[in-house]
Amino acid sequence: MLRSIATTGRGMRAMVIANAAGAAVSMAFSAAGLLSPGLALSGGVDRVTPLADLYAQLYAARALPLGAALLHQLLISRTGRGLVPLLLVSGAVQVADAAIGASSHNPGMTAGGTVLAALHLGLAARLACSADGVGPTGVPVPEAT
After folding, report:
1. Fewest C-beta atoms under 10 Å: which of 37, 45, 130, 144?
2. Global pTM?
3. What number is the average pLDDT over the span 118-124?
């Protein structure tokens, strides 16, 4: 039997909203870094080199489409199919971002990546363990055949 999200347990809606907000923030930081690569550097704008500009472009090429796909799955998709693998990939990317932040002594990148990884991987785990057939946006999904 399919149930609404209201009966799937406390906090699911909050987790979905937090993940959507996290994806949007990640996309915003990516766009800001694309416009001004110095924002990501701990030393400031005076250290921007062509390689830093290239890095910002490469980061945006990954972060913007991944964030958009995650937002779509969280907020628009009526089935939620594919959300768990997408959350796992997004979580893995954020773990890597946190590690890069730690190795480059960038506390904002470390903290942001860690929080977003916890959000994405936490929701993925909760959805993967859920056996009630409810999609992440509250829309009941057909049972697997």
Report:
1. 144
2. 0.77
3. 94
